[in-house]
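step 3/5: co-fold with alpha-L-arabinofuranose
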Amino acid sequence: MTEPRRATMILERDYRIGEIDDRLYGAFVEHLGRAVYGGIYEPGHPTADAAGFREDVAELVRELRVPIVRYPGGNFVSGYNWEDGVGPRERRPRRLDLAWRTIETNEVGVNEFVDWARKVNTEVMMAVNLGSRGIDAARNLVEYCNHPSGTYYSDLRRSHGYAEPHKIKVWCLGNEMDGPWQIGAKTAYEYGRAAQEAAKVMKWVDPTIELVVCGSSSSAMPTFAEWEAQVLDLTYEHVDYLSLHTYYGNRDNDTPNFLAWSLNMDSFIQSVAAICDYVKAKKRSKKTMYLSFDEWNVWYHSNEQDRQIEPWSTAPPLLEDIYNMEDALLVGCMLITLMRRSDRVKIACLAQLINVIAPIMTETGGRAWRQTIFYPFLHASLYGRGTALLPVVHSDKYDSKDFTDVPYLEAMAVLSRDEQELTIFAVNRDLKESMDFTCELRGLTGFAVQEHIVLEHDDLKAVNSAGNPNNVAPHARGSAAVEDGKVKAKLSKASWNVIRLVRAQQ
Ligand code: AHR
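step 4/5: write C-alpha cells
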C-alpha cells in the first residue's frame, strides 16, 4: 500500500499579506444575452417585484454578498449611449448592439441598475464608453449620476425621479480597448491619451471618484506589457487602478493542466504589478498603482453554441456556460490566487453574475439555481474577508502540458478583522488520491474547528441544472480537527475545502 500524499502549511499570526479589500469579491453584469433581460429583470416573472426585478435572482445575489458589480459592459459599453437608457421608457430607442449582434431595448438603464444594486446590497462600478464616444459622454454621465443638483445633467436625473445623487465611486475608463473586436479599438497611445483626458475631466466633475484604466484584454495579447507601460505612462497620476482580464478553458480535456491555469493568473498579476512599479520608478512617483481584476472566470463551454445563434434577437442565450465540478476547482484556485495577491489586487469581478458565464442560472419564466462555481465564490465572499495571512505551504508537485511544479495543494488563510475566526481555503488538485493535510498554527491560540466544508463529486464533469440543482453541492462532513496546535484534515481527491476555525471563549 502506498503512503497517502501529505501537505503542510504554517500560519503565523504576525506574518501577514495585508487587509483584503472586500471588493475582491465583486462581480459583473453586462447587457449581454440573458444577464439583464431574463436574468436580473423580467417583469411578468412570478417572483418579479413592482419594478420587474426577479426576487428569486436577487435572493441568490444577496446570498453571495457581492460588494460591487461592474456595469454595463464589457464589449457592450464601447457602443453604448447611456442617455438611451434614462427617462421615460416609452421614449427609449431600440438599438443594434454591434458587440454581441443583438437588439438592446434599453428597458433597463443606469437608474434601474442602481435601484437593483440597492435591492441586492451592492455598489455599482460604472464603465464609460471610450470606444464610439469619449470625454463628453463620460463627464456628462458622472454629472448625471453624482452631481447633487442645479446643473443640466443633475437636474435631468432629478426629473427622472432620482432626487439624490447615486454617488457611484468606481468608474472604468472603457473596456478592453486593445482588442480588435472592440468598437473603437485603439493603439496604446490613442487609448492612453483618451483615458488621460477623460480621467482628468471626470475627476473635475467629482474628485471623490476612483478610476480604473484598461490594461490588456489578456496576457496573450501581442501588445501585452508594452500596452500597460505606455497607457500608464500617460495616465499614472490620473487613475487609481489598472485592469486585468482572464478566462480559462479545458478545451482539450486535460484536467491536471486545466487546474494549473491559476498559476498563469498568479504570474499575470505579478507581471502587471512589476510594470506598474516600473512606471512608478520612471516617474519618481510616490503613488502605488493598484489592480482591478475586473473580469475573471472559466469560459469555453458555450463557444460552439454561441456560433449557432441568429443575430439581431433580444436577449438570446449567449455565453451560457454550464459549469461542472472541475470548473469549481479552478475557480477555487483562482480565488485563492486573488487572496494571495490581495496586497495589490483591490477589486476583482467574477465575470459574470447571472446566466452569462455565471454562478447563477435562470429559466426565463421559470426557476433559478446555483451553478457549481457558485460555491467557492460564496465561501470566499463569506469567509475570505479580513487579513490575508502569509502561508508557508509544502506540497508535492506535478508537471502538466503547460506548467511545471504545480503544487497538488493550493491553500490560503484569512483571519477575520476581530481575530476570532480563521478560515483555511484549500484545493486538492490530485485527481486520484486524498491528501493528509496539517497546518501548524503559530501565535494563533485557542482555535477549534467550527466547520469543514467540502465540495467534491465522483464525476468531475457533474453539473447542476434546473431539475437537479443540488447535484454538486457542498457538505460539512470534512474531517478537520485541531490537535496540539495543529489543524489536521484529510482533503478528498479533487476537492474544494473551507476549514472554519473559531476562537473558543477565553
Ligand atoms: O465577459 C464577457 C466579455 O469578455 C466582455 O464583454 C469582454 O470585456 C470580454 O472579452
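step 5/5: annotate
The chain has two domains: 5-14+389-503, 21-383.
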